[in-house]
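Retro notes (design track)

What went well: tokenization of the new backbones is finally stable.
What didn't: we kept losing track of which sequence belonged to which structure.
Fix going forward: every design gets posted as structure first, then sequence, in one message. First example under the new rule, 448 residues:
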């Protein structure tokens, strides 16, 4: 499970540059914001005026070092308290890859913000203070990364300089993680010793760790394989918008009628038979359009507009799926794992709005099955409620059927949020568990 890797050779000039999304998480003062600042600073991804502002600022430490955390901790309250509160996004690129970073809070009070920032990540970086080792927040964030099905995990053991770059301490913390990782669904884990403050093993290899054979953090992020992270089996297109330009000056657009959205799974091709839900009628893809022009095929996560051979009653909230592939689950009784994100606890019988892909329906929580004990990673059966930042399993009944995949199969069509009707506050993020598969329609229902 835990294998070391050697730095790959430089990517050829013709290799396409893809985008990797990653988040940093861990406990307070583990160095998340400093690590991101160090990545940006040492990779030369900052503009000159940003560097000059940092050097001129009053936030220079007594040792003469720039406070790199200020690159992401932009709120006054964050700087005053020395903690991250909101999710901060930063962007940078190297010749190998483009990156989108989400700096997420470590304070237990803001675990919900961590869930938000990590929801679309390819890689989650769990920072651990080498002095403290694995603590409850380390377990909590690792469990959340597992629940969110983040494909790749990096355990960055920070502040190794304070413990004298001890290989024994590094191995001890690694053993603490490996003790509970088998209970979580995480397959790709990488352990890296580093010092975010000094830059050791962040962008360049450190001379202080001759016992560590792997690449620095940036080298790992540049080389980790993410091509198979997207679900390319089972075409899914939640319809966001019915595209009707209706331009009388352009004959090609006068009668144009397409269905726009982001492909949430699989591949679609011109001439492919698809099924429109909830109408339950099948047709064929006539054209595939993007902002850059027509395509013969498209795949997840591209945003496209499909033109169909036949007129079918399709609107926002409908879903187009591949007819000859695995069909989604369907029903009004849902079973899900949730992270509760509101100060008022979740209780049975509460009514909410459930937003799933491009569809929003009324829903009621019918049962709270259990709450996850973060310390033992064991379920606590039949709790009366879920409090802020609790993880648990619930059952929900919706006003009309949803068409969905399990979150383990498809992160896009298997996720949802719960919204409080009166305030429009997002109170929970949910991950759907497997359900009975939709039955394929009979041939008489096809429009082909």
């Amino acid at each position: 499970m835990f294998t070391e890797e050697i730095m790959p050779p430089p990517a050829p000039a013709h290799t396409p540059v893809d985008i990797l999304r990653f988040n940093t998480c861990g406990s307070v003062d583990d160095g998340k914001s400093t690590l991101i600042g160090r990545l940006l600073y040492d990779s030369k991804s900052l503009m000159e005026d940003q560097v000059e502002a940092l050097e001129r600022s009053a936030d220079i430490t007594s040792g003469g070092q720039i406070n790199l955390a200020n690159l992401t901790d932009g709120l006054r309250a964050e700087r005053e308290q020395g903690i991250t509160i909101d999710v901060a996004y930063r962007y940078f690129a190297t010749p190998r890859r483009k990156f989108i970073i989400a700096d997420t809070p470590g304070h237990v009070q803001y675990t919900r913000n961590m869930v938000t920032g990590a929801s679309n990540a390819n890689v989650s970086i769990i920072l651990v203070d080498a002095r403290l080792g694995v603590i409850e927040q380390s377990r909590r964030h690792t469990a959340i990364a597992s629940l969110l099905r983040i494909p790749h995990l990096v355990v960055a053991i920070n502040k190794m300089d304070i413990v004298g770059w001890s290989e024994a301490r590094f191995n001890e913390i690694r053993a603490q993680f490996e003790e509970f990782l088998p209970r979580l669904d995480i397959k790709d884990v990488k352990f890296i010793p580093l010092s975010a403050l000094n830059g050791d093993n962040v962008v360049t290899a450190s001379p202080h760790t001759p016992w560590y054979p792997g690449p620095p953090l940036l080298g790992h992020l540049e080389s980790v394989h993410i091509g198979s992270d997207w679900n390319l089996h089972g075409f899914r297109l939640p319809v966001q918008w019915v595209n009707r330009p209706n331009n009388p000056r352009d004959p090609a657009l006068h009668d144009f009628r397409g269905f726009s959205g982001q492909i949430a799974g699989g591949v679609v091709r011109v001439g492919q038979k698809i099924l429109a839900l909830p109408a339950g009628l099948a047709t064929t893809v006539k054209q595939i359009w993007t902002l850059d022009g027509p395509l013969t095929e498209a795949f997840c996560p591209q945003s496209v507009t499909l033109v169909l051979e036949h007129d079918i009653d399709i609107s926002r909230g409908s879903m187009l799926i591949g007819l000859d592939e695995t069909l989604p689950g369907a029903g009004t009784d849902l079973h899900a794992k949730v992270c509760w994100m509101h100060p008022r606890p979740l209780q049975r019988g509460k009514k909410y709005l459930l937003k799933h892909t491009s569809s929003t329906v009324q829903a009621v929580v019918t049962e709270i099955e259990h709450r996850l004990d973060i310390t033992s990673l064991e379920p606590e059966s039949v709790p009366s409620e879920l409090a802020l930042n609790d993880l648990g399993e619930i059952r929900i009944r919706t006003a009309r059927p949803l068409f969905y995949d399990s979150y383990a199969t498809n992160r896009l069509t298997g996720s949802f949020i719960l919204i409080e009707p009166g305030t429009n506050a997002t109170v929970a993020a949910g991950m759907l568990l497997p359900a009975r598969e939709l039955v394929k329609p009979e041939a008489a229902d096809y429009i082909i």
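Added context from the reviewer: The CA atoms of residues 27 and 272 lie 49 Å apart.
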